[in-house]
Please model this.
Amino acid sequence: MLRLSRNWRKLPMAIAIGIGIASLCAQENPCPITKVHVQVEDTSGDSIQGLVADNFKASLGKDEVAIQRAEPGHAPSNIVILQDMSGSMHNNFAARSSLLLASEIIRQSPPEARFAVMAFADKTYIDQDFTSDRKLLGDAIQKYTDTRMWRGSTTIYDALRISVNHLHHKKIPPENSEIILLTDGIDTGSESRRENAEAELGASGVNIIAVGIDSPDSINSSASADRQRRDTLDRLARASGGIAIWLRTGGPATESHGVRREYKVEKGSSNIHDIAGELIREMSAGYELEIGLPSGFTKPVSLKLEIIESAGNGKRKLTLLYPEKIYPCRASSKN
Model:
C-alpha cells in the first residue's frame, strides 16, 4: 500500500484541505515548490525502501509536474499530546486506553523528542509545555488518572486550533511537529465550524494523528454515533495529511479503511505497547518529495501521485491513498 501524508516544510503557511504543503517562497513567485511526505507500503504493510525521484510521477490537474527530489522522511521532534477529558470519555476503557497509549508513545519515542501535554473539554489547557524530561511528562499524564476531572463538552476543533497556534507561537516548524489527538470523536461544543477547522489544519502544515476510542458505555454509543465519530476523525486526518487510528473493544485484530486503521484492544490493554510502536514508526517512515509548481498557481487543483512501473516493485500491488486537492499558499502568511 502507498500511503501519502503531507506536511508543510517551510516558512509560509498555505491553504490546503486534505494535503499539507510547504512552500519555498520568493517574492516574485511565492510558491515555486511544494514538499509532500509520502509513505510507501506494499499490500503486506511492509515499507518499500530505496526509491528515488525518478520512481515517482506527479500531476496537478491535467498537467504533469516535475519531482525534483526524493529523500527518506524523518520523525517529528516536537509532539503535542492532546487529550480529550470531556464527560463522554468518562469510562474505564476510553480513559485507560488513551492514557496508556499516550504514556507508551512518550516512553518509546527517541529520548531527544519533546512533548507538550494538553487537555480539553469545555476549554483547552496546557498542563506541560514542550520538554524531553520524561518525569515531567509522566507527572502530567498521571494527573489525568483522576477521572473525576473528566467532564464537560467536547471541543475538538477549538482544541486543535489552539494546539496549532501554540506550535506557531513557539516558532516550531511544521515539518518538525505533530499533534496526537486522543478522543471519542464527537465535537459537541466548539465555536469553530468543522469546515473552517479542517481548512486551517491543512493550512497549518501540522500533521494530525487522530486517535479515536470506543466508548461502549457512553450515552452517545449507537451505530449512527459510531459512524459520526469515525467520519470526524477520517476528515481531520485527510485535512492535515495525517492518519486516523481507532481503538475498539471488539471485531478483528486490525482493519484498514482508507486513512483509518482500526485495532482491537486486547483484554487488559496488553497490546497498547505494540499499537504505540506502530504509530511511532508511521510518523517516521516514508519519503519527502519536492515537487515543482507551475507559475500562476492560484486556485485549488487536484494532485495525483503514482509509482512508476520501473520502481522495482515488480508485480506487487500498490494502493495510493491521499487527499485529492491542494490549495495555493498565502505568501503574506509568514511566521
In short: The first strand starts at residue 2 and ends at 4.
